Amino acid sequence: MSEVLVVASKVKKLIKDKAGMNTSASVMEALTKIIERECLRAIEKAGADKRKTVMDRDFEA
């Protein structure tokens, strides 16, 4: 597994506050994979626009 890119306590709190549910440890790995994938997509979009800065618009569908 790569480095976790989410703050576990914040994710757990959000889920607990919004739904009263607990969060399994494997959720952090799954979210990290999603974040990594989306960051790579955003990097590609910025590169295609010949930019060296990833912007919020690079994460839009």
List unreliable stretches of 5+ residues.
none
Mean pLDDT: 94
Q: Percent range for helical residues?
A: 55-70%
CA-atom Rg in angstroms: 15 Å
Count every helix, treating DSSP H or I runs of 4 or more residues as helices: 2
What is the H/E string?
HH
Could you explain the architecture of this structure?
By secondary structure, the protein is mainly alpha-helical. It is built from two helices and no strands. The chain has helices spanning 8-19, 26-48.
SSE layout:
Elements (H helix, E strand, L loop, with lengths): L7 H12 L6 H23 L13
Question: What can be said about this structure in brief?
Answer:
The protein contains 2 helices and no strands. It starts with 7 loop residues before the first helix and ends in a 13-residue tail after the last helix. It is mainly α and 61 residues long.
